[in-house]
């Protein structure tokens, strides 16, 4: 018998991530089970040289040394979402990205910046407030662990109306605006650099 789907009207709760629930959410199929939130942590040839199982072990290891590398959302006891958030230096691909380079040297040189790297929301729970709850939790988690600034790189759907799931894993400008973020760069059309200060 198939599992009974969760009621999308159930309240959403959030907390710093734990490994067993991340592993359950990411599962064994789909992009999360191949990436394991390591795309921004493994630039260029490093990404190509690692298998999904290695990426999984790398993310698991992050839970052993310092603050959790993200937050989770739940409906009842069921995990329904993840948001990766870590100090920006943990993400070499972001630091070298065209989007951040275009924002200018001051933005790149800032210290105390944590980056919101990605969202994973379980099928059946998208467009129901999970991403907003995750972003709020990510901001709180970053500030609680010493961040001065939380930064995101969302898609502007007004300029990229055909953006699909593969493009929206970093969130949308509307999502970040609603969470109190301010745009600091629009120099790459359709992709903004947005920040929220402590």
UniProtKB/TrEMBL annotation:
Q: Which residues form the signal peptide?
A: none
A Pfam family annotated for this chain is Acetyltransf_1
User: What sections of the protein cross the membrane?
Assistant: none
Keywords, ordered alphabetically = Transferase
Transferase found in the keyword field = yes
**GO MF terms, alphabetically ordered:** acyltransferase activity, transferring groups other than amino-acyl groups
Domain N-acetyltransferase as annotated: residue spans = 26-198
Instruction: Report the domain of life of the source organism.
Output: Bacteria
Which InterPro entries does its entry note?
A: Acyl_CoA_acyltransferase, GNAT_dom
| UniProt keyword Transferase, yes or no | yes
Q: Indicate what this protein is called per its UniProt record.
A: GNAT family N-acetyltransferase
